[in-house]
Every structure is written in C-alpha cells, then in structure tokens.
Amino acid sequence: MAAYLVSEALGWDLVPPTVYREDGPLGPGSLQLRVNHDPEQHYFTFDAQTRQRLQPVALFDIIVNNADRKGGHILLDGGKLCLIDHGICFHAEPKLRTVVWDFAGEIIPDYLLDDMKALKNQLNANSELRHQLGAYLKVDELAAVGTRVAAILDTPRFPAPPGDERATPWPLV
C-alpha cells in the first residue's frame, strides 16, 4: 500500500491501483489491480527503448528501499510500465537489491528531480501523505524515506551498486 502511495505522490503511476482491506480472506492486507501482461516480457527481455524508460523505476526502488526488484516484477501492460511485489520495501536500514542498475553514475534528469522535490515537500510533518504512510510504516521507516529522498536531491546521480554487499536479488527473474 505504501509503495502505491509513494508512486502516486511522485506522479509516476508505476504501481497498479492498490487498496487496503480489513476483510481479506486471510485477514487485513492490500489488494492490487491485476496487470494484463505477457509473462514472457520482463526486464531481461525489454528492448533498448523500453529499458531507457526505466529511470523512474531505478529511482523508485531507491526511495522505497526495494530489497527484491526482480526482472519479473517489472511488467508491461500495453506498453505501460507496471511495478509489482513490494513486500520487501521500506526498511529503515539500506537493503536495496534491484536488477535495474542501468543508469549507475548518470545524472538524474531534471524532470525526475522536480518530482522528487515535490515528494520531499509532501513528506513534511503535517502532510496528508505522511499521515497516510504512517498507517503502514513505522516511524523510523518513514523517516528513512525522507532521508533517501534528500540524499538523492543532494547528489543527483543514479548510484552505483555497492561493492561490499549483494546488490541484486535472487533469483533474478
């Protein structure tokens, strides 16, 4: 649910519509709109043009501290990028593991930085977004989101994978 809220706040529309339900068949949890996609198409089969469109995905994974962005978690629905499976995100400690390291070292485009600045403003102490995220995240997890956004804005380059720890999930798809 928190991943959907962040995606919407950024205006990137990457995470399919998601709702929180108290009355799920196994208890409370989130429910996400099904994505119509070809399961044979994923990160590792995308053409160069589609892969170039993944800059927002790379930033999104940093913001939410995604520890499990596999190639099969990036879907195409009629050409629209859709991100699924955000069960291992938002930890307060750095845990980023993603297959999307294509842009390491590159300067982040201004249009994405503008969206990040808007997100930073939306994360202020009395904001609606902060209140909504507070329903799903612990205080330290929510603070870490703001810290990651600020770090990106302070050094507006896509980071390189850390050399001292595993930077990709397993399995890759």
Distance between the termini: 23 Å
Strand percentage: 5-15%
Q: For the report, how would you describe the main beta sheet?
A: 2 strands, antiparallel
Could you tell me the CATH topology label: Phosphatidylinositol 3-kinase Catalytic Subunit, Chain A, Domain 5
| Helix/strand class | alpha+beta
Number of domains: 1
The CATH first-level class comes to Mainly Alpha
Question: How many β strands by DSSP?
Answer: 4
Helical content band: 25-40%
Order of helices and strands: HEEHHEEHHH
Q: Quickly give the CATH architecture.
A: Orthogonal Bundle
User: Unreliable runs, pLDDT <50, ≥5 residues?
Assistant: none
Q: Using only CA atoms, what is the Rg?
A: 16 Å
Within the largest sheet, what's the order of strands? Answer: 1-2
Total number of helices: 6
Mean pLDDT: 96
Report the principal-axis shape. Answer: globular
Describe the model.
The protein has 173 residues and is an alpha+beta fold. The chain has one domain: Phosphatidylinositol 3-kinase Catalytic Subunit, Chain A, Domain 5 (Orthogonal Bundle), CATH 1.10.1070. It has 6 helices and 4 strands. It has helices at residues 2-10, 48-52, 55-64, 110-122, 128-134, 139-154; strands at residues 18-21, 29-32, 74-77, 80-83. The protein has a two-stranded antiparallel sheet. Helix 4 (110-122) runs antiparallel to helix 6 (139-154). It is globular, with a radius of gyration of 16 Å. The mean pLDDT is 96.
